[in-house]
Amino acid sequence: MNSDRVDEIAALREQKKLDRQAEIEAREAKEAEEAKSHAANMERIAKKMAKIEAGKNAVVEEPVVEEPVVEEVEEVKEVEVAPVKKPAAKKPKPAPKKKVAAVKKPTAKAKGKPRGRPKGSKNK
Q1: How many whole angstroms separate alpha carbon 5 and alpha carbon 12?
Q2: What is the pLDDT of residues 18-61, one digit of tens each?
Q3: DSSP alpha helices (H): ranges in the chain?
């Protein structure tokens, strides 16, 4: 029986070694994938920075915009403006009365475990 137990322990140790090795491989694969993704992002950022730098160095010509000439019109029409009536200020509605919640009676206190000798007991 003792040898069976030793065999089980040896098998568990081997399984732990295999599990640790699998975890290490998975972690390395994940880190490699993250590094690859990071390198791609850095390359994309470098391209954008190059475009920005190229844009700063280029001479930017602003197009000349001609302002349209506005001719003054001599005809002025007078329009009568009717006085605007302001609506009377509405009186605020009285706040609805709150219902008074029923007062709860305090519940009976829970009695704890009785201490000492029970009544009617003849043990003294």
Answers
A1: 11
A2: 999 999 999 999 999 999 999 999 999 999 999 988 887 665 55
A3: 2-57
